[in-house]
Amino acid sequence: MRDIIIIGSGPAGFTAAIYAARAELKPLLIASSVEIGGELMNTTEVENFPGFPEGIMGPDLMAKLQAQAERFGTEVVYDDVVELELDGPVKRVKLGNGETHEAAALIYATGSAYRKLGLPEEEVLSGHGLSWCATCDGFFFRQKTIAVVGGGDSAMEEATFLTRFADKVYVIHRRDTLKASKIMQQRAFDNEKIEFIWNAEIAAIHGTTAVTGVTLRDTVTGDERGLDLDGLFVAIGNDPRTHLVHGKLELTPEGTIAVEGRTSKTSLPGVFAAGDVTDPHYRQAVTAAGSGTVAALDAEQYLAALPKAPEAEVAAAATSVAEAEAVEAVEAEFAVVN
Ligand SMILES: Cc1cc2nc3c(=O)[nH]c(=O)nc-3n(C[C@H](O)[C@H](O)[C@H](O)COP(=O)(O)OP(=O)(O)OC[C@H]3O[C@@H](n4cnc5c(N)ncnc54)[C@H](O)[C@@H]3O)c2cc1C
């Protein structure tokens, strides 16, 4: 049995692994079979991760985090966790290939998924004018014309925030009323850079190497028209990846894993959670990395407080008896020689 298993290969998982490995806990990190490196693999330039004044490409940053975790002895497995057994002192992690791994502590860092429009162009244009994160990418759209898709609080917040950079921000919403709270709506209505396009959905995104516009479809009449754009932000929701722990760990009303205060402690002893899967608000690479640190330190403390397994105690006792006998033998030999 291992000391610790980490699930997730985003900034939270790899940072937890760096700390756990440097504490000599020999972590096993399950990276997934498809999305190794997490959400930053879907983006280009990351300009707000501290330590990279020139910026760094998302995949390069993740490769560096992985190399740093492996340098200290993290073992990475490229598979998906399909089942978890979390109650009891031994945590069991079943993988897609049928193997089961056991550990005394587990860090759950599976991130969250931004909801997509479901258009084929999304894969190609992500990070090339198509974004899910205004805080991350707003800076790239100075004096541009962009659009935000969505009608909830986060769409209003993103649209209002983006007016700091862009000259014009369209809000595209498929109904004629918003789901957002009244105060957020009013803030957006009062902003002269924001224009609402009601009863409209995106039928296609244009552009081969960067977003150049969209085809809008009227949700009432079905009519289609083009709209030229330099960028498109999708703000239609975010789903924390918690399906493996439903009914096992306590969740918050927002659907993230509930943790105790500023710690990473979940509702089960020995199970810690980190990164976007615990975070309904900030969802940044550096906050995820920070919470990975917290989880590794919490897990380390938990492991240190565990009573030693009887066989470990016997082994430790045997070692000290053997050591004592060896010392006695050397002393005796030394006495004879002298
Ligand atoms: C397009 C885009 C651009 C962004 N740009 C920036 C930016 O510029 N700056 C910034 O700070 N933030 C940015 N973000 C946000 C940032 O990517 C996230 O906040 C951060 O990646 C969260 O880290 P995490 O480790 O919690 O989760 P993630 O990065 O989502 O990683 C979770 C990992 O868990 C794995 N996983 C999930 N389920 C399983 C399973 N069952 N078995 C095994 N593995 C599993 C996933 O495959 C993934 O590897 C961006 C996000 C997007 C989508």
Automatic annotation (TrEMBL):
- Please give the catalytic activity noted in the UniProt record: [thioredoxin]-dithiol + NADP(+) = [thioredoxin]-disulfide + NADPH + H(+)
Q: What is its EC number?
A: 1.8.1.9
- Keywords for the protein's UniProt record, in alphabetical order: Disulfide bond, FAD, Flavoprotein, NADP, Oxidoreductase, Redox-active center
By its UniProt entry, which InterPro entries does this protein fall under?
FAD/NAD-bd_sf, FAD/NAD-binding_dom, Ferredoxin-NADP_redctase_2, Pyr_nucl-diS_OxRdtase_2_AS, Thioredox_Rdtase
Q: Which Pfam families does UniProt cross-reference here?
A: Pyr_redox_2
The protein's superkingdom reads Bacteria
Where does the FAD/NAD(P)-binding domain lie? 3-292
Cofactors (names)? FAD
**Which top EC class applies here?**
oxidoreductase
Q: How is the cofactor bound?
A: Binds 1 FAD per subunit.
PANTHER family in the cross-refs: THIOREDOXIN REDUCTASE 1-RELATED-RELATED
Q: How does it assemble?
A: Homodimer.
Q: Which family does it belong to?
A: Belongs to the class-II pyridine nucleotide-disulfide oxidoreductase family.
| Name under which the protein is recorded | Thioredoxin reductase
